[in-house]
Design a protein that fits this description.
The strands form seven sheets. This protein has a five-stranded mixed beta sheet. Strands 2-29-28-27 form a four-stranded antiparallel beta sheet, with no helix packed on it. Strands 3-4-5-6 form a four-stranded antiparallel beta sheet, with no helix packed on it. It starts with a helix and ends with a strand. The protein is 10% helix and 43% strand. It is mainly β. The protein has helices spanning 2-29, 36-39, 302-305, and strands spanning 32-33, 53-60, 63-66, 73-76, 82-85, 93-96, 105-108, 114-119, 126-131, 136-139, 144-149, 155-162, 165-172, 178-183, 190-195, 198-202, 213-217, 222-226, 231-236, 243-248, 255-260, 266-269, 279-281, 285-291, 313-319, 325-329, 338-344, 347-352, 357-362.
Length: 364
């Protein structure tokens, strides 16, 4: 009889060990699902008055950036000309009359003192760097197709195609000296300089292909695939602590937005779905423009990026530690389809796709 009790005792101990391992895995390692009871959904949150939304400038913009040293806001017009304003109620002045035909993309440095633009797209693309202090443009070598500023805004990485393939180079923006880092057999993609020694190379987002990304380690000159448990179609990299990923969790119909590590490893499923390009991350908060609904039969992100439809957005502020959301304003307050969100000081800026103008929201 004692032997039977001993065996039963060992079975119970083993069971508790297995249960403990499973609980630890679910608690600390598995992707957490934020349920409405935790996040309290998005329907009954406090709503900030829409009167806090202010038009920054009457100019229609292609893109914009905020100089963190002077707090000046630079507006890049549809034709590439650059304007400057100090904010709501202040005049807008033109600072650079250089036009950029067939403007395709604009990316600013982290401190907003420089930008890199791609124009003459797609027949004969030209990539050039603009310096706000010198108010000058400088072209990068021919056949450049992907760029990214380093976190200090003092260097620029770029890929250019050559007769033998592709190569990764780093340009020192002070000395104007470029250094080849390594060969890369790629002909298109996006770059994000995550930290001093690491750069992420990723495919351009599309529903047609699962997003593939690679980690470039500069000191080792290596290229390592980044993987996740879901089928990503769009990501937001570059923040020092977190990132975002739009992905299919289980099936092609189960689209989710994940909070991730800077390298794209899923941490939390957020309680809403939007494009990572409609969000901004700070150290403590996540700000996202969340569409009230999506038209039937659309392809994300393709149809949105091609402007085949416009959304009606609520803008949500989420505390990253508690995942508690506050609605800054909802779809009944203003007609907004927000993109290019930037947080600077106590203000959130965004471009409204309905009129392509820049707006600000005071954060409280």
């Amino acid at each position: 009889m004692k032997t039977i009790f001993k065996i039963l005792g060992w079975i119970l101990v083993a069971g508790f060990i297995v249960w403990g391992v499973y609980f630890a895995y679910k608690t600390f390692f598995a992707t957490k699902v934020v349920t409405p009871s935790v996040a309290q959904g998005l329907k009954n949150n406090p709503v900030v008055q829409a009167s806090l939304i202010k038009l920054v400038s009457e100019n229609a913009v292609f893109s914009y950036f905020v100089n963190s040293k002077t707090l000046a806001i630079y507006l890049v017009g549809k034709d590439g000309q650059i304007f400057k304003t100090l904010g709501v109620g202040q005049p807008t002045e033109i600072v650079n009359k250089q036009t950029l035909p067939n403007l395709n993309s604009v990316v600013a440095s982290g401190d907003g003192t420089k930008l890199v633009a791609t124009f003459n797209y797609p027949l004969a693309p030209v990539v050039a760097v603009y310096d706000t202090a010198a108010n000058t443009w400088e072209r990068l070598p021919e056949n450049t197709f992907a760029t990214a500023f380093d976190p200090s805004s003092q260097k620029l990485v770029y890929i250019r195609t050559t007769t033998t393939g592709g190569e990764l180079n780093i340009l020192d923006l002070t000395s104007k000296k470029a250094t080849k880092i390594m060969n890369l057999a790629v002909i298109d993609g996006n770059l994000t300089w995550v930290n001093k020694d690491e750069i992420i190379l990723s495919q351009k987002p599309t529903q047609e292909l699962t997003l593939e990304s690679w980690l470039i380690t500069l000191s080792k000159k290596t290229l390592t695939p980044l993987s996740g448990s879901s089928q990503a179609i769009m990501s937001l990299y570059g923040h020092s602590t977190y990132g975002l990923k739009l992905a299919y969790a289980n099936t092609k119909k189960d689209l989710k937005l994940f909070l991730t590590t800077p390298e794209g490893i899923e941490l939390v499923i957020l309680p809403f779905v939007t494009l990572p390009s409609k969000c901004a991350l700070t150290e403590k908060y996540l700000y996202c423009a969340v569409p009230s609904e999506y038209p039937t039969g659309i392809k994300l992100p393709d149809d949105y990026l091609k402007r085949k439809f416009y959304s009606l957005d609520s803008i949500i502020k989420i505390d990253i530690d508690t995942l508690y959301p506050i609605t800054l304003f909802d779809t009944t307050s203003a007609k907004v389809d927000a993109e290019q969100l930037i947080v600077s000081g106590e203000k959130l800026y965004f471009v409204n796709r309905y009129d392509d103008k820049l707006y600000e929201v005071k954060l409280q």
